[in-house]
Design a protein that fits this description.
Oligomer: heterodimer
Distance between the termini of chain B: 54 Å
Number of helices of chain B: 14
Helix content of chain A: 25-40%
Order of helices and strands of chain B: HEEEHEEEEEHHEEEHEEHHHHHHHHH
Shape of chain B: flat
Distance between the termini of chain A: 64 Å
Structural class of chain A: alpha+beta
Largest interface: A-B, 118 and 100 residues
Largest sheet of chain A: 5 strands, antiparallel
Strand content of chain A: 25-35%
Number of domains of chain B: 3
Largest sheet of chain B: 6 strands, antiparallel
Number of helices of chain A: 17
Structural class of chain B: alpha+beta
Chain lengths: ~775, ~550
């Protein structure tokens, strides 16, 4: 009895199964697509997060070394074979991997003790001051050796001269003095070695003396280096007060002497002489101006100073202008202040990778970053360190405590340059005369300070957007108002898609045209453009004015809704006329006389190189502008960008504004017209206010497009990260910066992450703008639903 | 008083209407002007110009002579004219394209209008398109052939015939050499690489215990390497022989400055007599040049030749992107419209998706580079291509990552368009379908999707148009200025997803800004611009027309 089987009315299992499957498939697929799209935000955020973290340290092995009075500690590139030097002239290498210790004596066989040591980190050279005002240079060479995949660091020590050299003259070996060398400092470049020493007289009544010795390095054809004595100077007479400390920078061209009175005397090496350049008292206003600690950080142009109460500051060399003479000179001045320390540090070491430095004494250890004035890590360690050192790669730290135990720490601080202040604050960079927002991500040398302020880029973005909007917003809104209110409806069907096509023009084409066609074309025709700018609206207004005055039978020649067609030939004539008139305007109003020295005009723009001045009067806007405003004139400037960006922005603003104007209920319009209002009154006083929110959202989306535009600004500006509103200069926007720098940025470097931060800022900016626009549109929709 | 005011206001409104009309006129003028400019500049490139012989003035009457195409004339208001009678008037310059770069040093030159004595268009000028150094122009003199008598121009018929024949055979031979060197030897190289990799892997695995099997395999590999080597040698010899045969014939031309210059026939791609062409001949030449532009590979650091690889790369990338974006976009839209419960959450998601359409394209590029290239690509490399490391396979920009990045960028476009299309399907139809006993999926599959197909298609086309024209993100995820091979070719696995590719938009950027000779690159850039704009315009127009049709259909089909 098949008819009784009710199952034949049921849907087949297959269909139900497919339905369930598809339900699941689409739901999960849809959700995951949406999640993936939102994941962009999360991913970009995860890339920038490490920029804002602190340094992390992890305790490594601890080793006991032989007792002794250790003067100095140094580290290799890998942080696996640190060395220690004691006052007996013994060099101890500590193999961290194998936990073994090797000691060797440096002043082979000689009885005299080492009175002072210094270590030149860049060249890995030790200098030992020996009795009798002699010294010895010792080169330490580290070398990685591979056996299979295992790496072992080995060290070797070279004495650069067979016998100790003498500070004052090489020749007189017999000059034996009873004076003690209490300090020795070493600085060198490829050609010179500068040694500074403090001599302590035996009788306490006598003053300590500061001596500088200059040696020339010469390499013969075989590659053997030979050291030649250039001169020695007693600098004591030039120093007022009692000598306390001396410092020489890495490249050996700056010698600093501090006195007990808290003065610093700055000597500069010029070829083979030393000159006193400056004497200053950093902590002058304090009761105890004595400088407790002074050290150069990487680069050798900035000194880190600490006084007794733990105030710590950075002084850098930068151009000072003498108020009287107007001469500019590179002198030391305070540029940074760091958070207060508990007490003056007893040891100091700086990184060879960046501007970080390690300071500390028995109570605390602190890792600070000079550029941002930030404390990367600070702690009081469970032991009492007397020496501390950073590895060359800035990835390990070593401390030696009182009981001669060596503690090793892993340091994880990949982005010390980061932080809010670095990206958004004003920073006084080395060599600059004032704090500033700067973007300059790469430089020539290792000691280069990355300048990663995003402010000039954000400024550039806003500048580009601003100039794009002051051109495109009026045009787009006027066009939208006309299209929605006055245009013949059948024409609207053609006009709107035409404008929409403009939105789809690839921006690379616009950028190319801007840079290679438009920029050279209008470069010489700025006065014409100024004329056009005023003439076009004036012409349109006058046309309307006269037409409204003529009798109705003439007025009928131009049907309502076709005014724009009439205007097109009219505007073309006006543009042509102004284009031709421009040079005449230029000849009469934009005249430069040769008031500027030619060199100065040259600096203002490469464009001016074509010109020869002979005291004549030249009519050229490109010269007139820099002379009158003091700002440069560039060929690829904001004017070009603003105009071309109009192609990208106008259609967007136009479409959305037109849509919202067209969405205003027609009943309002009919009512207004029926009450006797003119069509302009209806449009302006009735329709436009009703659509305000929609127009606002149109502008917001237009801004969003302009903010993110990449190719146009990349191609049509010079991409210089400057901060000025000058319409005739370029800019660098966030987006162009990404396109320029990201392909070159090493993966997960600070620059890479900073660029991601730029992308994040861009993302947030556009997201906010679009959200505001969306909310506005939503509101207007609600409003008209009620009507 | 009231009456008076009203009378005035009628009049005072009118100028403002005209002001708004100005906005529209400006917009339309801008877009039409831009399109006209690009069409004019882009097509002008292909039009065979007359070659002018220009005599320059000089004191002794024996002035310099130049031969070239007149590119443009311009006024330079900032430079003074050298003509003393006419002081203060702007300098008028003519730019001439002279070709013969290797002899003259520069292909372009500006000449002051006032210094030109006479311009003529001699009939006998020949223009040669060459593989290297760009075009050559001059008066043909004679043909030199190895072991044969030279053929002077006087023997017109013979000269013409020989030249034609020679260029044809030499070009054919050149094609053959290229086929051998690029396709056949390229294939061998690829196989060799594969063998080398396998060998390396085997050796690494079995350092301790080399079992017999591995040993056998190693021997096998070595023997096949040997055969490949032999094959390679054979092909290389063949190519060498052909190359030798390419030397021998030369065409002598006389330059405008009286210098005689011999040009290897093997260098000549094409030749014609520009001043002898009839109008129809010119039109034929015009289309022929367009065809060459579309079908050839670029030469001379992209400044000469065609854009076929860039065009092809754009198409492949766009299609791949569409294949990815349409199913996923449609799926997300169906979910949002048909499955998700309409509430604040879905509204928020919708706003977020809408917003995403406004996020700058470069941000997607940044994301694609970090996520696809470094994270996903790097992981794939470590898992599957570890034997090739440190050379990255997928861990660097490539076709797949570029397509995925652009797909992500255009997914909001598809979602919004599809949602709109789904929304346009009347609720009654849905209820009708469900009422007839269809399951939800059946309703979507049989009723809703077909009805909204044109709308979805519009979205897909718009996405394609946006993807095809976008350059900024591609610069970060795998576009290059010159790719050695096409992303789809005859070597296994035929579609090379990991390969870098060329793109029309990037071609424009690169040629316009990174090219060493930007003046020489300009024609190609304008032509490429035209091609890209045509591609985008056609796609957009298609979408607009489809949308209009859709509107009409639903306007009439309302219940």
């Amino acid at each position: 009895m098949p008819n009784q089987d009710s199952s034949r009315f049921e849907t087949s299992k297959r269909i139900l199964w497919i339905d369930r499957m598809m339900n699941f498939f689409i739901s999960s697929g849809g959700v995951s697509i949406i999640l993936a799209v939102l994941g962009i935000f999360v991913f970009i955020f995860s890339q920038i997060f490490p920029l804002f973290t602190q340094a992390e340290i992890k305790k490594g092995p601890t080793l006991q070394v032989r007792p002794g009075n250790y003067q100095l500690m140094g580290m290799d590139e890998w942080g696996e074979l640190p060395f220690l030097v004691n006052d007996q002239g013994e060099l101890t290498f500590v193999d961290v991997q194998e936990r073994s210790i090797h000691t060797q004596k440096l002043n082979d066989g000689e009885q005299n003790n080492v009175q002072a040591v210094d270590y030149h980190v860049q060249t890995q050279t030790l200098v030992l001051a020996l009795a009798g005002e002699a010294f010895r240079l010792v080169d330490i060479k580290y070398e990685p050796k591979f056996s299979g995949k295992k790496r072992k660091i080995s060290s070797s020590v070279f004495l650069s001269e067979k016998k100790p050299l003498f500070l004052k003259e090489f020749a007189s070996e017999e000059t034996q003095t009873s004076r003690q060398l209490s300090q020795i400092k070493l600085g060198m470049n490829d050609d010179f070695i500068l040694l500074a020493t403090v001599l302590v007289p035996q009788e306490a009544a006598e003053k300590k003396e500061v001596w500088a010795t200059l040696l020339a390095k010469e390499e013969n054809l075989l590659g053997e280096s030979n050291i030649e004595w250039k001169g020695a100077w007693n600098l004591t007479d030039q120093i007022s007060g009692n000598v306390q400390n001396i410092r020489v920078n890495e490249s050996g061209d700056i010698l600093l002497v501090t006195t007990e009175e808290g003065f610093i005397h700055y000597f500069k090496r010029e070829e083979d002489t030393l000159k006193l350049r400056q004497s200053f008292q950093p902590f002058a206003e304090l009761s105890s101006p004595e400088i407790q600690s002074i050290d150069f950080i990487l680069g050798g142009v900035s000194i880190y100073l600490v006084n007794e109460s733990g105030e710590n500051v950075l002084y850098s060399l930068y151009l000072h202008e003498d108020p009287k003479t107007g001469i500019e000179e590179r002198l030391f001045g305070q540029t940074k202040t760091f958070p207060l320390l508990k007490s003056p540090p007893s040891f100091f070491d700086h990184s060879l990778r960046n501007k970080a430095f390690l300071i500390g004494n028995q109570d605390y250890s602190s890792l600070r970053y000079a550029t941002t004035e930030k404390v990367r890590w600070e702690s009081s360690l469970p032991f009492q360190p007397i020496l501390g050192s950073l590895s060359r790669k800035y990835h390990k730290m070593a401390f030696l405590d009182k009981e001669q135990r060596l503690y090793l720490y892993d340091l994880k601080d990949p982005h010390p340059e980061g932080g809010w202040k670095a990206f958004f604050g004003k920073i006084w960079y080395e060599g600059a005369s004032k704090p500033d927002y700067t973007w300059q991500s790469t430089g020539g040398s290792d000691s280069f300070e990355s300048k990663l302020s995003l402010v000039p880029l954000i400024f550039g973005t806003l500048k580009g957007t601003f100039y794009a909007l002051i051109f495109s917003v009026p045009v787009a809104l006027l066009a939208a108002l006309y299209t929605s209110q006055f245009l013949q409806p059948q024409l609207k069907k053609i006009v709107k898609p035409t404008m929409e096509i403009m939105a789809s023009l690839p921006s690379v084409i616009l950028g190319f045209l801007a840079a290679l066609w438009l920029a050279p074309l209008i470069e010489e025709k700025i006065p014409s453009l100024i004329l056009i700018f005023f003439a076009i609206p004036l012409c349109a207004w006058l046309a309307g004015y006269f037409l409204s005055r003529v009798p109705i039978r003439y007025r009928k020649w131009i049907p309502r809704g076709q005014e724009w067609l009439t205007l097109i030939p009219l505007l073309l004539v006006v543009i042509w006329f102004c284009w031709e008139l421009g040079p005449i305007l230029e000849k009469n109003f934009f005249i430069v006389t040769d008031a500027y020295p030619r060199e100065k005009l040259w600096e203002m723009g490469p464009i001016l190189k074509n010109y020869v001045f002979e005291g004549e009067r030249v009519a050229d806007f490109r010269l007139w502008w820099p002379q009158v405003t003091g700002t440069p004139f560039e060929q690829r400037n904001s004017l070009v960008v603003g105009f071309i960006m109009g192609f990208a922005v106008i259609p967007i603003i136009f479409t959305i504004a037109e849509d919202s104007l067209a969405a205003v209920p027609q009943s309002l319009r009919s009512a207004s017209l029926a009450l006797g209002a003119s069509r302009w009154q209806t449009a302006f006083y009735v329709m436009l206010p009703a659509a305000t929110a929609g127009i606002f959202s149109a502008i917001m989306i237009g801004i969003g497009r302009a903010v993110g535009e990449t190719m146009i600004v990349l191609m049509a500006t010079g991409n210089t990260p400057i901060m000025e509103w000058n319409i005739f200069s370029g800019m660098r926007t966030l987006s162009a910066n990404l396109a320029v720098e990201l392909p070159e940025a090493p993966l997960h470097s600070t620059l890479y992450r900073t660029l991601y931060l730029g992308a994040f800022v861009l993302f947030i900016m556009t997201f906010l703008l679009n959200s505001i626009a969306e909310i506005m549109r939503h509101r207007i929709r609600k409003k008209f639903k009620a009507l | 008083m009231r009456l008076k005011k009203q009378k005035n206001s009628q009049a005072s409104g009118e100028p403002m209407v005209w002001m708004t009309a100005m906005g529209l006129s400006m917009g339309v003028l801008m877009i039409l002007g831009l399109l006209a400019l690009i069409f004019y500049k882009g097509l002008e490139v292909f039009w065979p110009k007359h070659v002018a012989e220009i005599h320059l003035k000089s004191e002794d009457g024996n002035g310099e002579r130049l031969l070239g195409e007149i590119i443009l004339q311009r006024d330079r208001s900032s430079h003074k004219s050298s003509n003393e009678n006419d002081e203060g008037s702007p300098l008028r310059e003519t730019q001439i394209f002279m070709g013969n770069k290797e002899v003259l040093g520069q292909a372009f030159r500006f000449v002051e209008q006032d210094k030109i004595k006479k311009t003529s268009y001699p009939e006998s000028v020949i223009k040669l398109e060459r593989r290297e150094y760009g075009n050559a122009m001059g008066f043909p003199q004679a043909i030199y052939q190895a072991d044969q008598e030279l053929i002077p121009l006087k023997k017109t018929e013979l000269f013409e015939k020989t030249l034609h024949q020679l260029v044809k055979t030499y070009n054919a031979r050149w094609e053959e050499i290229r086929h051998i060197e690029k396709d056949q030897i390229g294939k061998i190289n690829y196989e060799m690489e594969e063998l080398e990799l396998e060998k390396k892997q085997l050796e690494e695995q079995n350092t301790a215990a080399k079992n017999a099997q591995a040993k056998n395999r190693l021997q096998e590999l070595e023997s096949s390497q040997k055969t490949l080597q032999e094959k390679y040698q054979k092909l290389a010899d063949q190519a060498k022989k052909l190359r030798e045969a390419q030397q021998g014939a030369q065409l002598e031309i006389l330059l405008a400055n009286g210098q005689s210059h011999k040009i290897e026939v093997s260098q000549i791609l094409e030749y014609y007599y520009p001043n002898q062409l009839s109008t129809w001949g010119r039109v034929g030449m015009f289309f022929h040049k367009i065809w060459l532009f579309l079908s050839q590979e670029p030469r001379e650091a992209n400044t000469e030749g065609g854009v076929f690889p860039a065009f092809f790369g754009t198409l492949v990338m766009t299609l791949l992107m569409t294949i990815v974006v349409v199913p996923f976009g449609v799926m997300a839209a169906i979910y949002l419209k048909e499955y998700a419960k309409q509430g604040p959450l879905v509204r928020t998601v919708r706003i977020a998706v809408n917003n995403l359409a406004g996020v700058p394209s470069i941000v997607f590029g940044v994301f694609g580079m970090g996520f696809f290239v470094y994270m996903v690509g790097g992981t794939i490399d470590q898992l599957f291509f570890s034997n090739k490391l440190p050379t990255p396979t997928f861990g660097t920009g490539g076709l797949l990552w570029a397509s995925l990045t652009l797909a992500l960028m255009t997914v909001p476009v598809v979602i919004v368009a599809t949602e709109e299309a789904l929304g346009a399907v009347s609720q009654n139809i849905r209820e009708g379908a469900l009422g007839c006993g269809a399951s939800k999926w059946q309703m979507i599959q049989k009723i809703i999707l077909p009805a909204s197909a044109p709308g979805i298609l519009t979205g897909a086309i718009l996405a394609m148009a946006r993807g095809a024209g976008e350059v900024a993100p591609l610069m970060l995820v795998g576009v290059v200025k010159l790719a050695p091979t096409l992303p789809i070719n005859s070597t296994f696995p035929y579609i090379h997803l990991d390969q870098k590719f060329m793109h029309l938009g990037f071609h424009i950027y690169d040629l316009g800004f990174q090219s060493p000779d930007s003046e020489a690159a300009k024609p190609i850039v304008f032509a490429t611009t035209l091609l890209l704009i045509l591609l985008v315009l056609v796609l957009n127009l298609g979408a607009i027309i489809l949308r209009e049709r859709l509107r009409k259909k639903y306007a009439s089909g309302k219940f």
